[in-house]
Design brief:
The protein is an alpha+beta fold and 183 residues long. It has a domain of 123 residues: Nuclear Transport Factor 2, Chain: A. The protein is 32% helix and 39% strand. It has 5 helices and 7 strands, in the order H-H-E-H-H-E-E-H-E-E-E-E. It has a 7-stranded mixed β-sheet, with helices on one face. It is globular.
C-alpha cells in the first residue's frame, strides 16, 4: 500500500511540473482560470439577464447603514433623513407606498414601544445593475429588541434598500424570529 501511495504521489508531482518549456508563467496562471464555465440556471430572472449586478456605490451602503444605526439608537428623525419623500415598505403581510409622514408615524410608534434595540451586523453589499438603472443595498443582521414591558425578542433580518439619488425609496424586509436560547 505504501509503495502504491509513493508511486501515485511521484506521478502526480511529475505531471504537475511537466509543462512545456515555451509556456510562460503568465500563461500557466491564466489558463487555469480563463475557461468560462457554461452555467445552465434552473431559473432565470423575469426582468433581466442572469449575472446582472456589479459592485455598487459604497456611499449608498454608508447611508443605509447610518439610517439603520440611527433607528437602533432611537433617532427616528435621523433615520428618516436618509429616506425619500415617499417609500415603498414591504415586510411580513405588509406592502405599501408611504409618504415620509406616514413612515415617520409608523417608525416612531414602533420605536417608542421599545426600551432597546441591538443590531449585530452579519454582512452587507451594495450592487448596481449593469445598465446602471437600479442600485440596491442588502444587509443581513440580527436584531434584538426589548419592549418597555421587558419582553426580549430576537430576529434574523435581511433588508434590501433601493437607493435613488442618495435616498432610500424602497425598503423590502424579510425576517424570522430566532428561537429562545435554551437554559
Amino acid at each position: 500500500m505504501k509503495k502504491l501511495f509513493i508511486l501515485v504521489s511521484v506521478t502526480l508531482f511529475m505531471s504537475c511540473n511537466n509543462t512545456g518549456s515555451n509556456e510562460s508563467k503568465e500563461t500557466k496562471e491564466t489558463s487555469a482560470t480563463t475557461p468560462e464555465e457554461k452555467v445552465e440556471y434552473a431559473y432565470l430572472p423575469s426582468d433581466h439577464e442572469p449575472d446582472n449586478w456589479d459592485r455598487g456605490s459604497q456611499k449608498n451602503l454608508e447611508l443605509v447603514l447610518k439610517s439603520l444605526k440611527a433607528f437602533e439608537t432611537g433617532d427616528v428623525e435621523g433615520s428618516l433623513s436618509y429616506f425619500g419623500d415617499s417609500v415603498t415598505w414591504s415586510f411580513d403581510n405588509f406592502d405599501q407606498k408611504l409618504s415620509k409622514d406616514s413612515l415617520r408615524a409608523m417608525l416612531t410608534g414602533y420605536r417608542n414601544s421599545l426600551a432597546s434595540v441591538k443590531i449585530t451586523m452579519g454582512d452587507y453589499e451594495s450592487v448596481i445593475s449593469k445598465d446602471k438603472k437600479e442600485e440596491w443595498v442588502t444587509m443581513w443582521y440580527k436584531q434584538v429588541t426589548t419592549t418597555k414591558s421587558g419582553v426580549t425578542d430576537s430576529i434574523a433580518v435581511v433588508d434590501d434598500a433601493k437607493v435613488v439619488n442618495g435616498k432610500i425609496v424602497v425598503l423590502d424586509e424579510k425576517s424570522r424570529r430566532l428561537p429562545a436560547k435554551k437554559k
